[in-house]
Design a protein that fits this description.
Length: about 250
């Protein structure tokens, strides 16, 4: 699951028969699919363009990029994925949380995703070493990192007896993340509270639940939802005086 597979997808059009090439744009087209807002996605897009440039692909010069952003509205993602497939992009670059929709939209266009907990358990790839199918990418091992954050909270707050966890109920492997958090907390002898959160409107209720259940600290799983509202989470945690650890992506 390396960058060369993505580059191979970009250059693949050059190896097609003459008739197929005649039906394609003069330049290869990359479909870019993300679930976040334009503001939060801007630095990610900049890094994406830089990575392409380092591989010899300059937007507007020898590659076209079609952007589709869901702006934090997951119900829009399948339609956006379908749009990119209908454009017949050469490669579809996707965030982890939008990769399932991309995979559902096409079984032939190469899909490259970035991030996520466990793409095998989430059903995106057959294995890490041999992803198979048309989907590949980079896993950030966020399941293991989430467990380490719980361990860090335990070290910082050895007196803690109850843990709260914010997990986005919209992510493809929500149940897997809940299980992983519960298992990591269980190993430390901590019960864990996981209120359902699927929008910013659920934040107040979630923190009210943490306070009512006497949670001593909060761990936040990575997701577009939480990435888009870091200040709001910080304010709620400060108001409730709840130590909170999370990672922005």
């Amino acid at each position: 699951m390396r960058r060369r597979e993505f580059i191979a997808g970009l250059g693949g059009a050059a190896a097609w028969p003459a008739v197929a090439r005649a039906q394609q744009p003069a330049m290869p087209v990359v479909g870019y699919l993300q679930g976040g807002s334009a503001e939060r996605t801007r630095p990610i897009i900049a890094a994406f363009r830089q990575g392409l440039a380092e591989s010899g692909f300059i937007e507007g010069r020898n590659v076209v990029i079609e952007y589709r952003l869901a702006n934090g509205q997951p119900d829009r993602v399948p339609g956006l994925a379908d749009e990119l497939v209908k454009l017949r992009v050469n490669v579809l670059a996707s965030g982890y949380q939008t990769a399932k929709a991309a995979k559902d939209a096409t079984a032939t266009i190469p899909i490259v995703f970035m991030g996520g907990a466990d793409p095998v358990r989430a059903g995106l790839v057959a294995s890490i070493n041999r992803p198979g199918g048309n989907v590949t990418g980079v896993s950030l091992a966020s399941t293991e990192l989430l467990a380490k954050r719980i361990g860090l909270l335990r070290e910082l707050l050895p007196q803690a007896t109850i843990l709260g966890a914010l997990i986005d109920a919209r992510v493809p492997d929500f149940q897997l993340e809940v299980q992983d958090v519960q298992e990591a907390a269980r190993r430390l002898g901590l019960p864990v509270i996981t209120p359902k959160v699927s929008s910013e409107g659920d934040f107040d209720n979630a923190f009210a639940t943490f306070a009512r259940e006497r949670a001593d600290a909060i761990v936040v799983a990575p997701s577009v939802l939480f990435n888009d509202h870091p200040a709001r989470l910080a304010d709620l945690a400060a108001h409730r005086r709840l130590p909170t650890v999370y990672e922005l992506r």
